[in-house]
Amino acid sequence: MGCGPGMLTEEAILAIRAATEIHGSRRAIELARAHISEGCRVAEIGDYGTLKDLPADAVVLSTGDPMLAGLGRQGGEVIPGISSLQVAAARLGIPLARVVVVDAHAKDRAEAVDRTAGEIRRGRVVFLLTDPGFNPATLAAALGHHPGRIRITVCDRLGYPDEKITTGTPEHPPPPGSSLSCIMAGEWD
Q1: What angle do CA 7, 13, 15 make, to 5 degrees?
Q2: Which of 68, 110, 128, 152 is most open to solvent, judged by the fewest CB atoms within 10 Å of its CB?
Q3: For the segment 103-115, what is each residue's pLDDT rounded down to a tens digit?
Q4: Tell me: the pLDDT tens digits for 26-39?
Q5: pLDDT of residue 145
Q6: 110, 118 in Cβ contact below 8 A?
Q7: Does any domain span residue 50?
Q8: pTM higher than 0.70 for the full model?
Q9: What are the distances in angstroms from CA 71 to CA 23, 25, 52, 67?
Q10: Are residues 121 and 158 in the same domain?
């Protein structure tokens, strides 16, 4: 599905239109609604553990990037949308070749913060995939005083009409975003 409205690829739209059975979160189904054919069976996923029991021709909608921290690890054909990583890098003008991905989504936050701080100290730009409740001040504290121009940027609700991008520094971190946010941190021009 990509990270928000309009982030579907043409290949994904074609797969959704051709589907006879679709499963997904409420948000994913709403993002795809305009492309779902009449007569298609649509079901909200209640238990992600049951995905392996779906028919082989069922289409599963996954928001974000299914190979970043999503359902793509469960197997099957993956048709990606435009991910928050791609959108954040484009909005901020950061070449993807400079970016390291750190997944803090439903993971050990302390470990993710330590890894992020280490990558930044090595001169990398970090895309930090966060979960609700992640506070950029935690990352700022781990970075401490650092010479240079380190930025901590919260990219919130990318692709949505109320998209908001807020940049701070380790000394003055930006406020947390919503449950649909990610962070870019490091030095870039």
Answers
A1: 135
A2: 110
A3: 887 667 888 889 9
A4: 999 999 999 999 99
A5: 72
A6: no
A7: yes
A8: yes
A9: 12, 11, 11, 7
A10: yes
